[in-house]
Amino acid sequence: MKKLFFILILLPSLLFGLLNDPINFLTETKPGMQIQFYTNGGKISIYYPIIYKIVSFDTFTETMRYPNIIKGLAYIESGFNIHALSYVGAMGIAQFKPDTAKDFGVVNAWNPFQALLGADRMLRFYYEKYGDISTALAIYNVGETNFNKDKEMKKKGLEYAEKVIAASKKISENISLLDRGVYYLQAGFVNNLDGINITLEVGTIFDILGQLYFDISPKLITQLSSGTNFVFELTEKTYIKLDHFNSIVFGYNLGYNNEGMYNGPIVGYSYFKPIGYSFEAYYDFSKPIDIKNISIKIGYGQKDWRVSFGFDSDFKSFYVDLKF
């Protein structure tokens, strides 16, 4: 009866889950696949991004000097999507690069509040310097040095300014910002000393305004050895963004196997640069103290692909990960 109750509580939560750092998938615009090659098995994941409305743009305009211009800018830059990512690494609704973001007080470009107010500060700065909003917008697009020294870039920047100003006059006052979520299906197997482990996971990725990212990840593992053992785990991990790339991870793991229930906290750290390197590590304290219960992943990627190497604490195995 106790087993049945646990299963009935756990199985509905299979709607939630996470593959790894959320930014790795929330910046995707089309369905894709992730394949993990273990030393003694493999895992495959299929993911599907969705777009949905969140808060009104007007939520962020109270302290802006140029709210209508910023509205046009956000439309041209990202289509109001807070997890937009360019091929050159510009991030978020206002498409900031790290150096420019730092200059205008944007610590986390995925957070629309920071990004939109940072864009307004940038336009304000260059308007006060040059006295012209079109020039300020052009510099936003091509950079001040390019604008002043390269005629073609200056022309490009001024054409961008025209598009932003035109868009700002056409967009509805009640426009909403957009976010992405991801649904996925994951399955795999590993043959180790304990026998064959088969795992199945179905889930989604979601966040709150680019600041808190949630991983509520249920898992069914079937261990086939001399006797069949079923393991159910429900893991919650919260990624708290410190800046564009760094997050601290806190969570909790609740599990059940043939020997009974187990639970404990999860603590970790994630560095994820969507165009560049990534590193993730966390420890699951619901399991016995053992170095093999540390999950580690190191990778490198671009907008449409990423290759990683890591150690999976569930399968106790090293793997190579290819996401595309």
Written overview of the protein:
- It is a single chain.
- The protein has a domain at 57-176: Orthogonal Bundle (Lysozyme), CATH 1.10.530.
- It has helices at 2-10, 23-26, 67-78, 98-103, 112-130, 133-142, 144-149, 151-170, and strands spanning 32-38, 41-56, 176-192, 195-208, 212-224, 229-241, 246-257, 260-272, 276-284, 294-302, 305-312, 317-323.
- It has 8 helices and 12 strands.
- β5 and β6 (229-241) form a beta hairpin.
- The protein starts with a helix and ends with a strand.
- This is Transglycosylase SLT domain-containing protein.
- InterPro entries: Lysozyme-like_dom_sf, Transglycosylase_SLT_dom_1.
Structural class: alpha+beta
User: What is the helix fraction of residues, given as a range?
Assistant: 25-40%
Instruction: Work out the strand percent.
Output: 35-45%
Mean pLDDT across all amino acids: 89
Main CATH class of the domain at 57-176: Mainly Alpha
- SSE sequence, one letter per element: HHEEHHHHHHEEEEEEEEEE
| SS field, number of helical segments | 8
- Second CATH tier, the architecture of the domain at 57-176: Orthogonal Bundle
Strand tally, please?
12
Task: Tell me, briefly, the overall form.
Answer: elongated
Arrangement of strands in the largest sheet: 1-2-3-4-5-6-7-8-9-10-11-12
Query: The CATH topology of the domain at 57-176, please?
Result: Lysozyme
List the helices and strands and how they pair.
Layout: H1 2-10, H2 23-26, E1 32-38, E2 41-56, H3 67-78, H4 98-103, H5 112-130, H6 133-142, H7 144-149, H8 151-170, E3 176-192, E4 195-208, E5 212-224, E6 229-241, E7 246-257, E8 260-272, E9 276-284, E10 294-302, E11 305-312, E12 317-323
Antiparallel strand pairs: 1-2, 1-12, 2-3, 3-4, 4-5, 5-6, 6-7, 7-8, 8-9, 9-10, 10-11, 11-12
Helix pairs in contact: 3-8, 5-6, 6-8
Pfam families: SLT
Protein name: Transglycosylase SLT domain-containing protein
InterPro entries: Lysozyme-like_dom_sf (IPR023346), Transglycosylase_SLT_dom_1 (IPR008258)
